[in-house]
Predict the 3D structure of the following.
Amino acid sequence: MGRRALDFTVRRRGSRFADFTAEADPRDPHELRRLLDDAIRRDGWDASRIGEFEMEVRYAGDGRVLTTFVATDR
């Protein structure tokens, strides 16, 4: 599978927070965490609050959710 274009939807406590597209490996949790962390920081949030966010992952242009990624704040 490897790296490919993916669409992301980030939610904070269930409310839509951000949408973006990036190249990533959807099976790499370290890469997904880094993308979620970057999305949070871009909007001025402190990354220590990452536990309040979740990120839906889709292949670019495909509406089906591959997975919903969450990370702990620890």
